[in-house]
Structures are given as C-alpha cells and as structure tokens.
Amino acid sequence: MDDKNFSVVTNYALNSYNLIKKIQKSINNKYKIGGDNLFYILVVVANEGLNQEKIGETLWVNKSKVARTLNTLEEEGFVERRQDKKNRRQNNIFSTPKGKKVYEDTIKLFNQIIPSEDEDKLKQILASLSKAN
To answer: Do residues 97 and 79 touch, judged by C-beta distance below 8 A?
Structure first.
C-alpha cells in the first residue's frame, strides 16, 4: 500500500471512528448505557441467541469482560440469558424489547447521519476494506 492509499484508508478509519463515537455518545446518554455496552446490545440484537463466547470473539474481548458486561445489561433490562437446550452449562443471549429499541434508535441515528443516497459509496468502501482484511 502506498502513502496515498494509506492516507485514504486512515482518513476513512478516523471518520468512521468519529461517526461511531458520535452515535455511541448519543445513544449512551439517551439510555444511560455505560462505556462500550452499546456494542454488546447491537451484537446481541443482530445475532439473537449467541453464546457468551461468540459475543467475546465478535467484540474481541475476554470471557470475564463479557460476563460482567452482560450481567450489567441483564440487570438494566437490555438482554436476557437463556439456558442452551443442548448444553445446559451454556447460556444463549437474547435481546429484550428495551434492547431492540436501542438497536432501532441506533439505526435511525445512523441513517440520519449517513443519507441513503450514500449507501452505494458506503458499500464500495466496505468492500474495499473487507478485501484488505
């Protein structure tokens, strides 16, 4: 990758990071969600029934962090644990109506910031980044 391409990718990454942080701050303030807990909710709603290990792999966090965060989110009513029918030692995580509302509001906010006419451009950028990954 030459300097120009690196600069372009870095610029996209920083802009994406800033966009995510803006959305995260808004949603966290509205729902009183702490830290990066929003990302857990988004992963759970988008992938209903994942176990804690898969959530950790998706978010690149260790098992104890996942357990602590899910405890908090469960206490606050965003997610619920259900015992896996095949493996009783394992829990699957599902969203609650409150968790689904957070997800819907996050999507709405994203769509307000990124107009739908930019969707093709966004898909091209993501496809390029996926190839590099």
So the answer is: no
Number of C-beta neighbours around residue 41 at 10 A: 26
Domains of the chain, residue spans:
3-131
8 Å CB contact between 102 and 78: yes
Q: Taking Cα atoms as reference points, which of 35, 31, 40, 32 lies closest to residue 21?
A: 35
Q: Whole-model pTM?
A: 0.85
| Ordered strands of the 79-83 beta sheet | 50-51, 91-95, 79-83
CATH class entry, domain 3-131:
mainly alpha
Q: What is the pLDDT of residues 87-126, one digit of tens each?
A: 989 999 999 999 999 999 999 998 888 777 677 777 777 7
How many residues appear in the chain? 133
